[in-house]
Specification:
Blueprint: E1 10-12, E2 23-25, E3 28-29, H1 41-50, H2 53-56, E4 67-69, E5 80-82, E6 85-86, H3 98-106, E7 125-128, E8 139-143, E9 146-150, H4 162-168, H5 172-178, E10 188-190, E11 201-203, E12 206-207, H6 220-229, H7 232-236, E13 246-248, E14 261-263, E15 266-267, H8 279-287, H9 293-296, E16 308-310, E17 321-323, E18 326-327, H10 339-348, H11 351-354, H12 358-363, E19 369-372, H13 374-386, H14 392-402, E20 407-411, H15 412-426, H16 439-454, E21 461-464, H17 468-474, H18 485-501, E22 505-507, H19 511-516, H20 522-535
Parallel strand pairs: 19-20, 19-22, 20-21
Antiparallel strand pairs: 1-2, 2-3, 4-5, 5-6, 7-8, 8-9, 10-11, 11-12, 13-14, 14-15, 16-17, 17-18
Helix pairs in contact: 13-14, 13-15, 14-20, 15-16
Length: about 525
């Protein structure tokens, strides 16, 4: 059964005691005290919610104060009678208290001279507040060293309320000294040199340093401001190409490992994802119906179409296959083949044509596999290029690798260190042991030398990179605390080379590693190599 809705009927009392609510609700007089306009707080809130407040509430009273001067003003006490009540506050300015002085000052219908004592032109001075609140008049009035009035009226113009604006405008010098400065209209233009990722706008001769967002190359704040004043298109349309134009790179411009697409005349330098095209360019092609993926993509290579050949020089432990003129550098696991090529030849039923025979496998010499710290390889480079090696035995060991008598694993950081060390030394003056090359020529020569040293060596160099797990072990988990972070990472890579690739020796000239952990100095490693050779 539904509950009946309560009906509330209101009428006014015929006679209402002073200070009491004037309503009768459902025949019962309200005995609560008046809160506003003849109603108690509860009835005032309910009637306001129902939209019936004006129907029962008294008319709002005008809160205009009635001022008159006392017949015999007392010195030091405010000289006013307000709404029939003499003011007892101390006088602060021209015989008035601060409250009534400010009230009469702000009343446009009253004149201050009609109520205040005669003014002394020397006693009142106008100053600007030290830290004026936003939107509040900036003026404070002082008599000597004492503050008489801090204006709290809202700002009308130039930081002044209406009364102070009118008063101080009669003294232009004082007006300009106290008023807020006139704001100049902001001027916007483009930078002459625009940096990628940085806003391209100069505002009032100050370049914006905020990050740019979107194709228009401006920050979010300037994008909103320029759009509001109608300058966004005028200044930034030049950064938005009218249409995305895609072309395929010419054969002479195509570089392996880079996307094959030219976007609006700019060759794409991103890494390909599928058939020579990066993810971004694939999306651009798919969004434009006038382009076809096949018009840009490289020919699809099927597994059955790859050409397989045997290497002329076979090294024990390495796959003996050349696929599409590219020698395989993977470790041999089954009869001279890596797992990948073993599966391919097995599916083609051609294993007998490629795998090693027992006689071939026994005839292959055993080549030692060692891990070289970067200082070993750097010594070889210094010896070969500058005839200067800190440890000559290290240079001899690397030469054994190049002569295919030794197999070495190095870190990827070793490649970077060789390139960096060589490029830096090439710029030294000749009398200091360098070649006196310019930075550009040194960079080109260092890059070319590094490529020739490590590439195309028949798999005798194995290059491995650090794993994020190694960094976690050596930093967060605090492994190998006796070593520096650089040395600890090298030791962990040696462990990987031991487990995965069969490295048997860690060769380094770093005393910290030799004394605290493991390893063999190049001098001792060379003796070890000679012993192995004599046994063979």
């Amino acid at each position: 059964m539904k509950k009946k809705k309560r009906i509330r009927v209101f009428i006014r009392k015929p006679v209402t005691p002073k200070g009491m609510c004037q309503l009768i609700e459902n025949g019962i007089p309200c005995n609560r005290k008046e809160a506003s306009r003849g109603l108690c707080g509860m009835h005032s809130q309910y009637l306001k919610l129902k939209g019936r407040l004006e129907e029962f509430a008294l008319a709002p009273e005008k809160r205009t104060f009635n001022f008159r001067v006392k017949p015999n003003p007392e010195e030091g006490v405010c000289r006013l009678i307000v709404n029939g009540v003499p003011c007892s506050l101390p006088s602060r300015r021209r015989g008035l208290c601060i409250r009534h002085y400010a009230g009469i000052w702000q009343r446009p219908d009253l004149k201050l001279d009609d109520f205040a004592s005669p003014a002394n032109s020397q006693e009142i001075e106008f100053f600007r507040k030290k830290n004026p609140p936003t939107g509040i008049c900036v003026v404070k009035e002082m008599a000597g060293k004492e503050t008489i009035l801090k204006c709290s009226e809202p700002v009308f113009a130039r930081g002044f309320c209406k009364s102070h604006y009118r008063k101080l405008s009669q003294s232009p010098d004082l007006f300009d000294a106290i008023a807020d400065p006139i704001r100049e209209k902001a001027k916007y233009r483009l930078k002459q040199e625009i940096k990628p990722g940085i806003c391209a706008i100069i505002q009032n001769n100050v370049g914006c340093t905020n990050p740019a967002t979107g194709k228009r190359r401006v920050c979010r704040n300037h994008q909103l401001t320029l759009r509001k004043i109608g300058l966004l298109d005028e200044l930034t349309n030049q950064f938005i190409p009218p249409k995305t134009v895609l072309e395929k790179k010419l054969n002479q411009d195509s570089v392996d490992g880079f996307c094959q697409v030219v976007v609006n005349g700019v060759p794409c330098r991103k890494v390909p994802k599928r058939r020579g095209i990066c993810s971004s360019c694939i999306n651009l092609i798919e969004r434009n119906p006038e382009y076809k993926f096949s018009d840009f993509a490289l020919p699809e290579m099927r597994q059955g179409e790859s050409e397989l050949k045997r290497k002329k020089e076979i090294i024990r432990g390495f796959c003996l296959i050349i696929e599409n003129d590219e020698p395989c550098r993977k470790a041999a696991t089954i009869r001279g083949l890596c797992r990948h090529h073993y599966r391919i030849l097995s599916s083609r039923q051609r294993l007998t044509n490629f795998t090693l025979t027992e006689d071939e496998e026994q005839a292959l010499p055993v080549i030692p596999h060692w891990y070289f710290d970067k200082n070993v390889v750097i010594d070889f480079v210094m010896k070969e290029v500058f005839q200067d090696a800190a440890v000559p035995e290290a240079a001899v060991l690397v030469q054994k690798v190049l002569e295919k008598k030794l197999f070495a694993t190095i870190s990827f950081d070793c490649v970077r260190a060789v390139y960096s060390k060589l490029g830096h030394r090439l710029t030294w003056p000749v009398n200091e042991g360098g070649k006196g090359l310019s930075s550009t020529d040194a960079e080109v020569q260092a890059r070319e030398y590094t490529g020739k040293l490590f590439h195309g060596r028949g798999g005798l160099w194995h290059i491995t990179a650090n794993d994020p797990r190694h960094l976690e072990l050596c930093t967060v988990l605090g492994k190998l605390p006796v070593l520096s972070l650089e040395d600890a990472l090298e030791v962990y890579l040696f462990g990987i080379a031991q487990t995965d690739f069969g490295a048997t020796l860690f060769v380094t000239s770093d005393r910290g590693i030799l004394e605290k952990v493991t390893g063999l100095h190049p001098r001792d490693a060379l003796k070890n190599f000679k012993v192995i050779q004599s046994i063979k």
